[in-house]
Amino acid sequence: MTSNSPRARLRWTAALIAAMLIVATPVSARVLSMDDFGREQTIWSAPEISPDGAWLAYVISAVDAKTDRSVSRLWMMSWDGQQSVPLTHGQFSVSAVRWSPDGRLLTFLSTRYDSDAVAQVWALDRRGGEAYPLTDVAEGVGGYEWSPDSKRLVLVTRKATPPRPSTAIVIERYQFQSDGDRYRDVNLAPARLQLYDLATKTAAALTDSSEFEEASPSWSPDGT
């Protein structure tokens, strides 16, 4: 097919009309300012549906211009979109939002007000009240999942190892760096799984390998 064929001429004519319409359409535009970036908000996590299907919990991330840092806050919205409720405030961030299977608690990971502290699992009771820590694990929590009976948590933790005497960076693992981060801390042991009993507030090791990373646990439906 040559450029002088009827089909080719039709394509060029349609493209020319489209270009003329674009040029002729008035566009209201302005230059972006730094304040615009401070107003940008992003849904930072997949929404978590409550067990009764009535509510969605999600995390919104935004930049706090005064402190020049990103803050992620927890929100809850009714399924019909008529109610939107902010659940956390202040300068601390949250992540890993989960509903307890019985629907009573909404949990998340946070260091709360101490940025130097390790993350723990925090809980909000749907009946009201302030958030409170569910776990108190020395090495902190990197991930978790509720048991089907809402009585236990499986935790992803990583205990520290004694520092090496050498100042050199020794690479002994496949994933030694990730996008946006420096070299991973060589003094950290591989991630392991622990079983945390909410009634006794005790954790028991499920895995304790010095060679393998364990993460993303998932419960069987019967909880065993």
Can you give a write-up of this model?
This protein is mainly beta and 224 residues long. Helices cover 11% and strands 30% of the residues. It contains two helices and 13 strands. The strands form three sheets. Strands 1, 2, 3, 4 and 5 form a five-stranded antiparallel β-sheet that branches. Strand 12 and strand 13 (202-205) form a beta hairpin. The longest helix has 19 residues, at 6-24. The chain is globular, with a radius of gyration of 25 Å. The protein starts with 5 loop residues before the first helix and ends in a 19-residue tail after the last strand. The mean pLDDT is 80.
Total beta strands? 13
Task: Estimate the helix proportion, in percent.
Answer: 10-25%
Q: Enumerate how many helices there are, as a single number.
A: 2
Could you give the order of the helices and strands? Answer: HHEEEEEEEEEEEEE
Q: How large a portion of the residues is in β-strands, by DSSP E?
A: 25-35%
Mean pLDDT: 80
Structural class: mainly beta
Show unreliable segments.
none
Topology diagram in text:
Elements: H1 6-24, H2 34-39, E1 41-43, E2 48-49, E3 55-64, E4 69-78, E5 84-86, E6 95-99, E7 105-110, E8 120-125, E9 132-133, E10 143-146, E11 152-157, E12 192-197, E13 202-205
Antiparallel strand pairs: 1-3, 2-3, 3-4, 4-5, 6-7, 7-8, 8-9, 10-11, 11-12, 12-13
